[in-house]
Amino acid sequence: MLLIAGVTLLAIIVLGVVFVIGTHIVSPKANLSQIGPLIALAAQFVAYIGAALFIVMFVEGKYHVPFWPAVRWNWPRAGWRMFVLGVLLLLSINMIARFLPMPKSTPFDQYFSSPRDAYLIAIFAVTLGPFMEELFFRGLLYPVLARRLGVSWAVILTALPFALMHMFQYGYAWGVVLLIFIMGIVVTIVRALTGSVAASFLVHVGYNATEMLLMVVVTDGFKHMEKAFAS
């Protein structure tokens, strides 16, 4: 798992550099400060696809079992309830945020510098992003920790690196990281109770989709991001 995480991170960095160099060669006059978020998103997208393929080949090649059953990707019967839980979780987290110090701006805000970039990150946030995060944290990491340390510690130690992974995006603001940790706790509990990574994925998607939808509404389709930051 550490190897997968390390290779994925290295791939994102290397691809980012390659994309920057490629952009400069193709269009020397391109403003990298404006297209930087797009390049970073493209690098993460390609790296995640590669990591997903590597995980599938690793699991099936090493353990000789079908991939989806091996990672417990079994769809719950009432999947819509998991999605609704994600919606309610986001609304609850937003209420808790009112009592914590929240930064007025973070490095993540650069992804919303233009409506185009904002819509792309929104699509990523409800598709490949939660898919890969759930696959790694709740599909691979959680069961290993649960077998060795028990469910309680596994829930905490799965949610903790999940939260810390987002620190840089939010400028190391402890309030935001705490909220993501709480979200990670809830999603991991769902994984533990249902025995399904697909269930935690649906909660995650419901959470992210609600957050993106609220931003779309508040900012008039990502056209006035100052409204979101002001709120």
The share of residues in extended strands comes to under 5%
Helix content: over 70%
Domain count? 2
Radius of gyration: 18 Å
Largest sheet: none
- Given helix and strand content, the structural type is mainly alpha
Quote the average pLDDT.
89
Q: Provide the low-confidence segments as ranges.
A: none
Q: How would you characterize this protein structure?
A:
The chain is mostly helical and 231 residues long. It folds into 2 domains: 1-68; 71-230, no CATH class. Helices cover 76% and strands 0% of the residues. It is built from 10 helices and no strands. The chain has helices at residues 2-26, 32-63, 67-70, 79-97, 115-125, 128-149, 151-164, 174-194, 197-218, 225-230. α4 packs antiparallel against α8 (174-194) and α6 (128-149) packs across α9 (197-218). The protein is globular and about 55 Å long. The N and C termini lie far apart (39 Å).
List the helices and strands and how they pair.
Layout: H1 2-26, H2 32-63, H3 67-70, H4 79-97, H5 115-125, H6 128-149, H7 151-164, H8 174-194, H9 197-218, H10 225-230
Helix pairs in contact: 1-2, 2-5, 4-8, 4-9, 6-7, 6-9, 7-8, 8-9
Features:
single chain; 231 residues; mainly alpha; 2 domains; 10 helices; globular
Q: What is shown here, in short?
A:
The protein has 231 residues and is mainly α. Helices cover 76% and strands 0% of the residues.
